[in-house]
Structure formats: structure tokens, C-alpha cells
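Researcher: Go.
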Amino acid sequence: MQRSITCAPWALALGLALPALATAQLRMPVPEESRSGYTWSLGASISNGASYPGSTERSTGIRPVIGLEVGRFTLSSGGGGSLLDFDLDARDSGVTAKLLQWENLRLSAGLRMDGGRKGSDEPMLQGLPDVERTLRGRLSVIYDFNKHASVRSTLSQDLLGRDGGATLQTTARYEIQVSPYSEIAFALGFTLADSTYMQGRMGVPLSASGVSTPLPAYVPGGGLFSQDVGLEFKSAVSDRWVVFGGVRYSQLRGNARRSPLAVKPDNYGISLGLAYRCCR
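Model: Structure:
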């Protein structure tokens, strides 16, 4: 019998953990010069994970880590944005603008490139249509319960009409300072997707089934796509150098889990990186 994870136990576990951790200090020291001008980070990370959601194959890659904050605007790639000030804001990849803040509630919008997926990426995908690269628009609502806990909900939409569809990702985070210059963060969340996104990522078109691929035709509807839980860490090893990384466990759910492409619906990913952080 396959084990499953539902939102209710996660929410209960988080609720029980909050009071016990309420006395922990969260924010790491930020250099004085970061209060004006701009802040940037630059480095690299290595990661290992499933080739695509549901794959039995794993891949390892090295990617650049870039972060730049100027006023209300942030440019982030490879997780570099999250290194800029060590706060609860996870800083999505791409270009992000802070639109407004009202007490503990924040609203931001952004753009990012979706790299898509090629049918030649691995044998299981051979004969399936490529998932095209596209530009996605993002709108995020973030609520900070206190200096430790926050919840973020992000709506992401394909802006170029390349069958990228839309997703809604909601994540709760809890951060703890474990030393004057190190912190860890617990995160759990889920992703909803519309039928267009589901079909592109987990569907098997009727035109390809039995023709270019032996897989049976599968046309998924929209709904719950995945659930995940993760542990992240950041540690300032000197005034400027930061080591960071994490591990994440995810499960495909609903129609995504029933797809013939979901050979291994439960999977994990790990990452480790080093970056230089500076302010002007």
C-alpha cells in the first residue's frame, strides 16, 4: 500500500511546533550598508533530483546563483535572491517587484522564464510533444504571522500562450536561528494546476499514443498537482561568504499521480551551494 501525505497532518504538526519555537531569534545580522543602495549575491550550487516529476531517472547539475536587489526590485536565479537579507521572503526566481505592504501582508509581482521540457530528455518521454519555453507572470501574496512564520501563495500564468497553463502554489515556512550566523527553515506546501498545465507536464496526447510512444493516451484535468515538504539552511561562514542548501521530498497527487508518466510519484531532491554576498 502506498503511503500518502495530506495537508491536515502537516498543518497540525506546524501548529504544534510554533509555540515550542516561539522564543527563537530568526533574522541574521544584515550589514549596515544594506539599508540603502543595492545588495547582490553571486555563486554556484549543485543539485540532484528527478529528471521530471514522476521520473525514475535522476540528474545532477551545477547552476549559477545570482541575486540583486535594488529598491523594490529583485533579480534572482538559482536561489540567489533568498541570500540577500535572510528574511522570510523566499524571493522567487526571475524579476520581482514589491507592490505594496500593509502591516504583515505583502503583495509582489514578477516575471520568469519557464525552461520547458524536451521529449529527448529521457527514454520515457520519447515521442511526446516538447513542453515549450515560455514567459510566466507571477502574483504573490505573503503573510508574516511573526518573525518566524509566514505563508505565501503564488499564482503563475503562461503569458505567451504556449500551453503552459496556470499554477497556484501555497507554502508555509518556519525559520529558526541556530547560531548567530546560521539558520534553518522548514517549508511545506502544495501546488494546484489547471488542465492545460497538467496536460503539458503529465498528459499523453491521443495523437501520440501508439504512434510515437507506447504509452496509453491520458488527458488529465486540473486539480491538486503535488505536495512537498523541505528543510533548508543558510550559514555565513565569513562576513561575505554564505553556504546554503537543503533537501525536499515531494509527492505527485490527484490526476498527476495517475499519469502513466508518474512511474515514481514520490521523490526527493538535494542541493548545496556557496555564494558571495555584498552591498553598495
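Model: The radius of gyration is 20 Å.
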